[in-house]
TrEMBL record:
The keyword RNA-binding does not apply. The keyword Transmembrane helix applies. This is DotU family type IV/VI secretion system protein. PANTHER family: DOTU FAMILY TYPE IV_VI SECRETION SYSTEM PROTEIN, MEMBRANE PROTEIN-RELATED. Residues 1-21 are annotated as: Disordered. InterPro entries: T4/T6SS_DotU, T4/T6SS_DotU_sf. Residues 34-235 form the Type IV / VI secretion system DotU domain. Keywords: Membrane, Transmembrane, Transmembrane helix.
Length: 254
């Protein structure tokens, strides 16, 4: 089981001659919600791999994800969460990843074609219905289950639909559930920001995205922009000084 204090060993490209994971994400976030904090790398992995074709999928992806789910579960135990809350969290997480795996064709090249995370951890083939039943139970005690409700809301915001995945005619019903959960969480948090999220106000239904972190690339681009501004300022000053000198020379030559 991996150590949650270290980065997840999922490099984007495998090191030559060394079998290993093939994507790398920071394993610990900066969320106000420890549950979201622990799950962030797996959620990021889903978003990262959803843009890749099946030929680019890492080998042994399923077993790697199983290991990280177990590591996240251990971390939540150390955080003091109730056993039932941890089981519910794992159920939602597995269902979300399985839905993404099937929706993006991961199963064509990986162990998902043989089994799913939900089968592995809960011996169930599909959780798209049960997640919403679970939501109805959790929402009766929103204070007690706030972290779990926020995590589920994040999964909804990242595209999880469960039983509404194929029932396009029932999207209005999902939207009502989504807005109801948003209202409940807003009452709990007030004006406090939702952990790890920002809202795109132009998107219908209050869609959210994971906040992008400042990277070396961003710093370099920012530094380059500053240098360009200073260079343009230098050119303007030089042009001004040149004009002054020419003006003075013209006076002397008259």
């Amino acid at each position: 089981m991996s150590d949650m204090s270290e980065p997840s060993a999922f490099p984007v490209e495998p090191e030559s001659g060394t079998p290993g994971r093939q994507y790398r994400l920071t394993l610990r976030g900066n969320s106000l919600n420890p549950m979201i904090d622990a799950a962030t790398p797996l959620l990021g992995m889903v978003m990262r791999l959803s843009t890749m074709n099946s030929q680019a999928m890492p080998e042994h992806l399923f077993s790697q994800v199983v290991t990280d789910v177990q590591a996240v579960e251990q971390l939540l135990q150390e955080q003091g969460y109730e056993p039932g809350v941890i089981v519910s969290f794992r159920y939602i997480l597995c269902t979300f990843i399985d839905e993404a795996a099937l929706g993006n064709g991961w199963s064509n090249k990986n162990e998902w074609i043989k089994q799913s995370l939900l089968v592995h951890f809960h011996n169930e083939a599909w959780g798209g219905e049960k997640v919403f039943i679970l939501l109805e139970r959790l929402i009766r005690e929103p204070v007690r289950y706030q972290d779990l409700l926020e995590f589920l809301y994040l999964c909804f915001s990242l595209g999880f639909r469960g039983r509404y995945k194929v029932a396009m005619q029932q999207q209005d019903e999902f939207e009502r559930i989504y807005q109801r959960l948003h209202h409940v969480l807003h009452k709990l948090r007030g004006d406090a920001p939702f952990p790890l999220l920002h809202q795109d106000r132009k998107t219908r239904g209050g869609r959210y995205q994971l906040i992008r972190r400042l990277t070396v690339k961003h710093v370099l681009l920012g530094g380059l922009a500053v240098l360009v501004v200073f260079y343009l300022f230098y050119l303007l000053r030089l042009e001004s000084q040149t004009q002054d000198i020419l003006h003075q020379l013209n006076k002397l030559l008259r």
